[in-house]
């Protein structure tokens, strides 16, 4: 039975007023709302009435008495004069360990048909801030990824952030699925940003599988969703990863792809009236990229770490295009996947000579580094002379180092070749590589 005291407590919990405005214009995806002066802030959430139901939107810009809003869903049906209610506070999540094995959207809502989510006690902002640089722990020990090319030539350490740079159709998503299954971690948080809708279930069922999904939270925003939802999904991916990191767990954060996050931010910036800069990307794109990527990495002492693997879809196979160039300068290493290698049938098509891990040489032992450097020298020598060898312009016996490279490079390439379901081990890989180089690798150093 409702008592007077409980009714009074309920009334005190209510906000004393509710601010609302009216829609005055809809320009493409941009909705202009009037009447929220002094109340609306950048990032505020607005609920707009429409015949099809309430449309949630976010304030992305302010222009005198007009609030520029972008919707999280299709704005069709919104009419001029529609009521726009301003919600209190910023968007936030309450993640919990019960989210493991679930698929959610950018707002933390379930999309897997498995029923409602169980929420944790802690309220966490979706757009969080990275730990203070001076207080963060250092990058930890080496982590095996199960991919021989990476474990030998571009190792990943706990708390490190690596970028996978590739054009379309060269095996980037397949490599990501291998990393999702085999990389050592306590929890995996996977963000599929702007992904093809048909590939989501394929990735979850075929690539992750029941065992991989059980330790994972998958955040999905497909390519047909509004730009705001695609950007939000990237922020949510990091927010969920931060929750598990703060519990002392080692988290693997996979995001496919950062480029689609940048494209979503470009759409939002252009709709809000920002001037286009390099290749149409607005200035906020290059401001938001470090804010997103710096959230991954080691936590504070006593916390866990977020080991990040972020894919970058390079435009027209140009690895110096603006987004790729900006991301490469932020991350702790870059893995280059090239079409030239994919076309000759060697997968994963990682270009060893162009890939860099900034944890080298400390990630490997001294002996492993000797083997790695000797193998790189062989591959570099062969790369320089490859065209001449194929054209028959090089005569065997002209140069001993080239002769050795011509003999050994195909064997190293065979070692680097790896099937989608074939797990590699670093110790075995180094042993095989040392056997290929034999005892002559010391003479080549």
UniProtKB/TrEMBL annotation:
Lineage: superkingdom: Bacteria
Keywords for the protein's UniProt record, in alphabetical order: ATP synthesis, ATP-binding, Bacterial flagellum biogenesis, Bacterial flagellum protein export, Cell projection, Cilium, Cytoplasm, Flagellum, Hydrogen ion transport, Ion transport, Nucleotide-binding, Protein transport, Translocase, Transport
E.C. numbers: 7.1.2.2
Gene Ontology molecular function: ATP binding; ATP hydrolysis activity; protein-exporting ATPase activity; proton-transporting ATP synthase activity, rotational mechanism
Main EC class the enzyme belongs to: translocase
Similarity comment: Belongs to the ATPase alpha/beta chains family.
Protein name as it appears in the record: Flagellum-specific ATP synthase
Organism lineage: Bacteria, Pseudomonadati, Pseudomonadota, Alphaproteobacteria, Sphingomonadales
């Amino acid at each position: 039975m409702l008592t007077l005291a409980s009714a009074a407590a309920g009334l005190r919990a209510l906000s004393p007023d509710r601010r609302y405005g009216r829609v005055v214009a809809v320009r493409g995806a941009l909705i202009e709302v009037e009447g929220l002066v002094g109340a609306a802030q950048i990032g505020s959430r607005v609920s707009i009435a429409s015949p099809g139901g309430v449309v949630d939107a976010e304030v992305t810009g302010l222009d005198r008495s007009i609030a520029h809003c972008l919707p999280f869903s299709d704005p069709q049906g919104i009419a001029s004069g529609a009521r726009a209610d301003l919600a209190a506070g910023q968007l936030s999540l309450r993640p919990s360990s019960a989210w493991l094995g679930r698929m959610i959207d950018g707002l933390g809502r379930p999309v897997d048909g498995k029923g409602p989510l169980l929420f944790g006690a802690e309220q966490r902002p979706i757009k969080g801030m990275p730990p203070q640089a001076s207080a963060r722990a250092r990058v930890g020990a080496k982590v095996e990824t199960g991919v021989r090319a990476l474990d030998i030539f571009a190792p990943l350490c706990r708390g490190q952030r690596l970028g996978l740079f590739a054009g379309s159709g060269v095996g980037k998503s397949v490599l990501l699925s291998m990393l999702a299954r085999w990389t050592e971690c306590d929890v995996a948080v996977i963000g599929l940003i702007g992904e093809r809708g048909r590939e989501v279930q394929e990735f979850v069922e075929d690539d992750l599988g029941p065992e991989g999904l059980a330790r994972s939270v998958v955040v999905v925003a497909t390519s047909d969703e509004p730009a705001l939802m695609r950007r939000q999904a990237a922020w949510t991916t990091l927010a969920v990863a931060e929750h598990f990191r703060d519990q002392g767990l080692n988290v693997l954060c996979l995001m496919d792809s950062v480029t689609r996050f940048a494209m979503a931010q470009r759409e939002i910036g252009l709709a809000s009236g920002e001037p286009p800069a390099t290749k149409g990307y607005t200035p906020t794109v290059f401001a938001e990229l470090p804010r997103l990527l710096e959230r991954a990495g080691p936590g504070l002492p006593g916390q866990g770490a977020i080991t990040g693997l972020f894919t970058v879809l390079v435009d027209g196979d140009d690895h110096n295009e603006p987004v790729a160039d900006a991301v490469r300068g932020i991350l702790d290493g870059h893995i280059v996947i090239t079409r030239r290698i994919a076309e000759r049938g060697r997968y994963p098509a990682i270009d060893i000579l162009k890939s860099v891990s900034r944890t080298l040489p400390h990630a490997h032992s001294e002996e492993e580094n000797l083997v790695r450097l000797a193998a790189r020298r062989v591959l570099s020598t062969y790369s320089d002379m490859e065209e001449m060898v194929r054209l028959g312009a090089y005569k065997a016996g002209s140069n001993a180092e080239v002769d050795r490279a011509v003999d050994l490079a195909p064997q190293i390439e065979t070692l680097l070749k790896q099937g989608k379901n074939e797990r590699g081990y670093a110790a075995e890989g180094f042993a095989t590589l040392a056997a290929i180089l034999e005892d002559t690798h010391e003479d080549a150093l």
